[in-house]
């Protein structure tokens, strides 16, 4: 990949950006600052800025041909190259949900899926992928959790960085989004997210900080919400002071679509308004075209700031190399399908199992598969991340809902049927299907079988939060009735969030498959039959009930579209497993939890401190099938306080009997607190209690290590 920054003789991306920007007219400068949406299911008229023949997508910004600046063509998302009606028939590889990738705890897989995204984007001419969704899973009702990676900053950053690196290695700019605290969807355009600024630095912002450091994404997309009273898109405390100030971020900051709060956002650090038509649709006005120009003409937007906005965009284009593209890369859709399949396999979490799984493959058992449209395919989440898979969706069942996102809220089924795949992998079994329509009918079907496999699905969508953690459409009652009718009941969940499982102790095994993507049905069947040994670990705590969570009642839930809502994120940095450690509550399933068909032992555990914490140990697969383990290192106490932090993790694949020595080095910021007065990270001098663990609540070994007090970073 030609990259100006890698060539020693060539000017740096910064130098080139400066040079090219100086040669631009005022009109050319302004033309780079606004993206327009292509024609899709909502936008019906082609915007005059988009030339004929340009592939329609989420965003278009004209180039400046005379200066060799290419147009910007932007496409969503982290889960594939999306197409909500922009380009009839143009399908792309549909990856599993981000939360499934998160469950793999596998940065290498994130890298592979990023490379895939970059190749598929580039082959269509898209040079900006609106990927890198990294909001922390603070609330198990958030309708967009499925797009993101986890509730933990280090874990999210480790995976997001690799995905972004994979995309940008293909010469395609990746965003990282949504900066910051866009952690609920309820009235998101009117949502004021309140947080203590120090806690923010130690959680959501830390995820951005580490991911940006590790991957240098070309652009940061701001959120729709306000943070502490100020819209993210115009929040100078976050954009100027933290992102561009403390972190010295050199790329550009774009708004979310319809999320530019005013032209003054430019003064607060926003460099580009996104999706002009959505701003008009939402607010009956848009800000960066005439108003920003007028402000400039009136001297209210300093020339230096205008140049900075342009230079930041150019700098990222040159640094990633979007102006150096050769011919489009060959896209091997079969290889990409394998990446989707691998992600589904590694993302599936075996939550409980009394030994009923894996299913015997050579016995003529009578099995009934119930519900979840398992005879058709697997569901996916809705909104800007939904990907049209090769061959199209197997089915689209309208759901709907209020607000602008209601039209896209559907039950989309990817054509990978768990039922078909189970029949393929269990040729000796006699397998029937029951639609799961009513408890009575499903119980009857279950009573005639040796084993019942019930699918429970829940559709999450951008623009909506879940009112509770139950399965919709009466599915909990169906599972309950089936478990009563047949003691050999296995439940497979396909959800974007934790659910409560009131039937948990009455079923023999529970599998969480999330939204498993275009190969999901196959991966589920492989895990159920043991062709694949499950290795996913929960990237989010499953609470036993909402009263265990920081906000049993979600403010604003169900209020009409347009209602101002304030959510106090009082838990601060104590999100998920950290919150549970603080309150002492026992979750349904802990962060990091996930079972295997084999066992792993840990020996020669050495935990030591100094500048940071180091864990060295040997993992052995003591069972009789190959499998992968995910050892986790936690801080559990700092001097004078209980403080739980994931410090690092590894994913180790082992054959039966095989051992591997593993070293995990703690990321120092997770051992530190942020000292706002001194603007620095601070590790306290003295004893810190650390644990090697299988899950946030399952320690294997622990001890006190002594750390030397120090300050570092900004
Ligand atoms: C989403 C963004 C997305 C954008 C463009 C917005 O609704 O919040 O994540 O990139 O649309 O489609």
Strand line-up in the sheet with most strands: 1-2-3-4-6-9
Number of strands: 31
What portion of the residues fall into strands of 2 or more residues? 15-25%
The stretches of 5 or more residues where confidence is low (pLDDT under 50) are 1-5
What binds here, in terms of ligands, is: beta-D-glucopyranose
Task: Provide the gyration radius in Å.
Answer: 25 Å
Shape: globular
Portion of residues within helices: 10-25%
Polypeptide structure, described:
Mean pLDDT is 97; it is low at 1-5. The chain is 25% helix and 22% strand. The chain is globular. The strands form eight sheets. A six-stranded mixed beta sheet has the order 1-2-3-4-6-9. Strands 10-18-17-16-11-15 form a six-stranded mixed beta sheet, with helices on both faces. The chain is α/β, with parallel strands linked by helices and 714 residues long. The protein has 17 helices and 31 strands. Bound molecules: beta-D-glucopyranose. Residues 58, 76, 130, 177, 256-257, 384 line the site of beta-D-glucopyranose.
Secondary-structure blueprint:
Layout: H1 13-22, H2 26-31, E1 59-61, E2 72-76, H3 98-104, H4 107-123, E3 128-130, H5 153-168, E4 173-179, E5 191-194, H6 197-201, H7 204-215, E6 219-222, E7 226-227, E8 230-231, H8 236-246, E9 252-254, H9 276-283, H10 290-297, H11 303-320, H12 333-347, E10 349-353, E11 366-370, E12 378-379, E13 395-398, E14 410-414, H13 418-425, E15 430-434, H14 439-447, E16 451-457, H15 475-485, E17 489-494, E18 509-512, H16 520-529, E19 565-568, H17 577-583, E20 600-608, E21 614-621, E22 627-629, E23 632-638, E24 641-649, E25 652-654, E26 659-665, E27 673-675, E28 680-683, E29 686-695, E30 698-707, E31 710-712
Parallel strand pairs: 2-3, 3-4, 4-6, 5-7, 5-19, 6-9, 11-15, 11-16, 16-17, 17-18
Antiparallel strand pairs: 1-2, 7-8, 10-18, 12-14, 13-14, 20-21, 21-26, 22-25, 23-24, 23-29, 27-28, 28-31, 29-30
